[in-house]
Amino acid sequence: MISAAGGASVEAPAASSHHPLVVRDDFDSAPLTAAADAGADEALRMCDSTSSGLTQEEAARRLANYGPNEIASERPVSRVRRLLHALRNPLVILLSVLAALSLGSGDVRSASVIALMIVLGVALRFVQEARADASAAALRAMIHVTVEVRRDGEPREIPLRDVVPGDVVIVAAGDMIPADVRLLTARDLFVSQSSLTGESLPVEKSETLLVDTSTPPALERTNLCFLGTSVQSGTATAVVVRTGGATLFGNIAQHVTVGLWLPIFPLAAALGFVALPGAYWPLLALTLLLYVSVTQLAKMLLIRRHWI
Q1: Domain count of the fold of the chain
Q2: How far apart are CA 275 and CA 281, in angstroms?
Q3: Where does 29-154 have alpha helices with state H?
Q4: Is the pLDDT of residue 238 over 50?
Q5: Exposed e or buried b for every residue in 112-144, given b needs 16+ CB within 10 A?
């Protein structure tokens, strides 16, 4: 590898183009591309850092300023919200309509049975979701991800969430890239970017400047690495350019839709209902119509028998 510490521009290996690399339009990649276009020393100056890393005091100040190195995550669900979510189920709504129709037609026994089914179904779903959330939280609490950085000129292990812009990180085979970084040194470095690009093969990375007049996007810069990717082989040092939600991975996470199905009409969206696929609604309507028809037919037969 040829070092770019002096700012020399060298021809870098061409980035893989087997998979389309798409970046959201609202992601500002200018700081990353600026650092990629600069030499290693200039990139450190742009990040207001040095090759020996930040001091503990400066790192604490930046942590307070930029916030923890965490991406968007789901907020804890309160019991009231969890109960409302269980009640908004279309099947519960259908059973409630059937119970109301049964009660309106004087069939109290059927209405009571359906109401019991609703209560048991909602309670079971509420308990299962609460236990699942508690188990997931316990598993997350058991996982502690650390990163090796240089602080006060000495390497030390810190929690991933404490990484700040300007930190000089040290990564090796098996490590996760802790943020969006600009490489300072690299030795036989191959990084898996499948979580961002879908590429099955690792991409070779180096600290050298890329001589390319076409100005490739950030994901195709070989001297940039991104949060969410991992080191397959080799070692490297890099300066952190962006952390948390400001990273490419964090930007994607903020725009991920958690729902599997979209509401099929605006009123459902306004009320927050989790709608079923459109093909299911005719089936539910048919079930409701069949129930009403059978109920009315049974009443007519009973009345006729009474007359005879």
Answers
A1: 1
A2: 9
A3: 30-37, 40-46, 56-66, 79-87, 90-104, 108-142
A4: yes
A5: eebbeebeeebeebbeeeeeeeeeeeeeeeeee
User: From the CB of residue 171, how many other CB atoms can be counted at a distance below 10 Å?
Assistant: 24
Measured distance CA(303)–CA(308) in Å, rounded = 9
How far apart are alpha carbons 181 and 191 in whole angstroms?
A: 13
Q: Please give the residue range of the domain that contains residue 214.
A: 27-63+145-245
Residue 131 resides in a domain: no
CA angle 37, 209, 38 (to 5 degrees): 30
Residue 295: both structure tokens together: 């109920």
For residue 207, tell me if it sits in a domain. yes
Q: Per the structure block, which two tokens stand in for 280?
A: 């299911």
For residue 185, being part of any structural domain is answered with yes
User: Tokens 């009571």 label which residue?
Assistant: 112
Token pair 């036989």: residue: 188
Do residues 223 and 9 touch, judged by C-beta distance below 8 A? no
CATH of the domain at 166: 2.70.150.10
Question: Within 13 Å, how many C-alpha atoms sit on residue 143's CB side?
Answer: 9
* The one-letter amino acid at 152: D
| Average confidence (pLDDT) over 22-45 | 78
Give the H/E segment covering residue 188: strand 180-192
- List of residues 6+ apart from 33 with CB closer than 8 A: 215, 217, 218, 221
Between strands 168-172 and 146-151, the pairing is: antiparallel
pTM greater than 0.70: no
Contact 179, 163 (CB under 8 A): yes
Judge whether 217 lies within some domain. Answer: yes
pLDDT tens across 195-211, in order? 888 888 899 999 887 76
